Each structure stands twice: as C-alpha cells, then as structure tokens.
Amino acid sequence: MFAFLVDDETKASYEGEEIINAAIWGDALKVLPKLPPEIADMVFLDPPYFLQRSDLTIYRWNERTTLRNWKEEWDEFANFEDYDRFMASILQECKRIMKPNATIWVMGSFQNICRIGATMQNLGFWLLTQFVWVKTNPTPNFLNRRPTNATEFLIWAVKDKSVKDYTYNYEFARAVSPPQFKIPVNIWELPTCNGNRKERLKDEKGKPLHPTQKPEALLERVILISTKEGDLVLDPLAGTGTTAAVAIRLNRRFVLIEKEEKYIKGIKERLNSCIHNPTLF
Asked: In what order do the strands lie in the sheet with 98-108?
C-alpha cells in the first residue's frame, strides 16, 4: 500500500512510519528537514541540471521545424552561486537522513556534474566513483554545431571517508558491465525511455509529461548494486516516480518528495498501476 501526502507547512516533523512508501507533495527544501535522521539506506538524487536556458528547444536540421520545446521553471536559477546553494542545501539534508553506511547517487550532465562533485566534497562526502551512462539512442544534434551528447553521469558516494560497510553487489555490477570488460566497470550502456510506450508518462495531450524521465533500467541498476531487499530508498526530487516504480518491483521501500503538481499526479497514476497492472513495470 502506498501513501500520498500533501506537506503541511505548519507540520513540524514526520514520523518514520507515516512516510514509508509515501509520495509527499511539497518542496524538498521544506520537507527534508522534517524527516527523521539516519533512516535512508540509499538516496537517489536527480536534480535540475541548470541548462542555463529559459527554454529547451530541439530543432530539425533546417532550423525551422521545432521537434520539441520545454520550459520548466524548476531548472531556472539566478546564477551558479544560486544553483550551488540549492544543491548544498539538498545534499546537506540528504546526508543527515542517510544511515551511517548508506550511499547516495547524484545524477548530472556535463553542465553541472563538476559543480555537484565539488559541492559534495566540500560537504564531506567521500566519492566512490562516477558512473557514465552511455545512451544507445541519444537525441541527435541536428544543428551539427557540436557532437551529440550521448552521456550522463552518476556520482556514487558515502557520507565520509570512514564508511567501509556500504552495500555493493559485486556480482551484479559485473553482470551489467559492457561485455568487453571482465570486471565491473563504471560504464553503463542503456537506452533512454523515449519511445517506450509502457514506460514514458504522457500528459493529457499525449506528450511526454517530463523532459528528462529516467529509464527504469537505469534505476534498476542503481538499486540492485547498492541496496538489499527491504531497504529504504529516498528520492527527494522524484519527478515521475521512476525510483518508486522500480523499488516496488524489487521489494524495496521508498520515500518520494516532489513539488510539481503535474508530476505528483503522474506518480499517483503510475504507482496505482503497479497494483492493478504490475506487468507494466
């Protein structure tokens, strides 16, 4: 059973049991301080990438026909310092909520991953490695002004250098590494969820609900490498709820936080589908 909570700004704190397998509609900067300390076995954080554009428009090669146009306020920041403050605030709270041996995954692209890594190190996190997600179906750069961006990155870290007993499933990591390697490596080759009718969430007009919905196969690797059955996974910037959909299938518990109403509605429909039609997930 799943819970869907609306954050009450007058509420001082949440008890552990009321947030287990719950999606909380609220601002992560306001909700995270209300969560109990040291409850999460793993944190997955897919933050805004701060693309530094008022909109994200993809054109055909003739520069006339628009393929897709995104405008999302959640990716807008005044400057790099504003973005760094946002990330530091989120990461500091995540660190407080992590168990002593928990790990954290933080996603990014070339625009923001270096800043995030520096912020994490400044906060005392110990970086274990950086995974490279190689997209097997990247969106082409139709204007041919630079190479197509076919990679994203995931920093995997623990709370500090002293942590040694974190969960790491070596055999699974080896199994999902590219076949040319005989040992686990930090490279994952996976398609995006574009075109996957079972997975891609759509709005009332049939358009993709979220511009950067992550594929379930990516979260499956994150969860299986770094958690055990029954572990609690926190996703404070939940988007369309991919973390929860995968956690349910893999017998993990979850806590989601999301402030955008349209995404919360998508999460609710998605998780209800896990009950009524589990073959979709």
From this structure: 3-6, 22-25, 253-258, 232-235, 40-45, 98-108, 151-158, 126-135, 187-190
In the chain, domain spans: 3-101+117-152+159-213+228-261
Q: Are 25 and 2 in contact (CB under 8 A)?
A: no
DSSP 75: G
Q: Going by C-beta distance under 8 Å and a sequence separation of 6 or more, which residues neighbour residue 129?
A: 156, 186
Q: 3-101+117-152+159-213+228-261 has which fold?
A: Rossmann fold (3.40.50)
pLDDT at 65 over 50: no
Q: 76-129, pLDDT tens digit by residue?
A: 888 999 999 999 999 999 999 999 999 999 999 998 999 999 999 999 999 999
Q: CA 260, CA 258: separation in Å to the nearest integer?
A: 6
Burial group, residue 222, by CB count within 10 angstroms (0-12, 13-18, 19+): buried
Residues 43, 104: contact at Cβ < 8 Å? Answer: yes
Mutual angle of helices 242-249 and 216-226, in 10-degree steps: 60
pLDDT digit string, tens, across residues 189-227: 999 987 556 787 777 777 777 677 899 999 999 999 999
Residue 13 tokens read as 């704190």
Locate tokens 């998780």: which residue? 271
Of 225, 211, 217, whose CA–CA distance to 198 is shortest? 217
Q: Which amino acid is at 26?
A: G
CA of 87: how far to CAs of 136, 163, 186, in Å?
29, 22, 24
- If one compares 25 and 196, the residue with the highest pLDDT of the two is 25
> Can you give the pTM of this predicted structure?
0.89
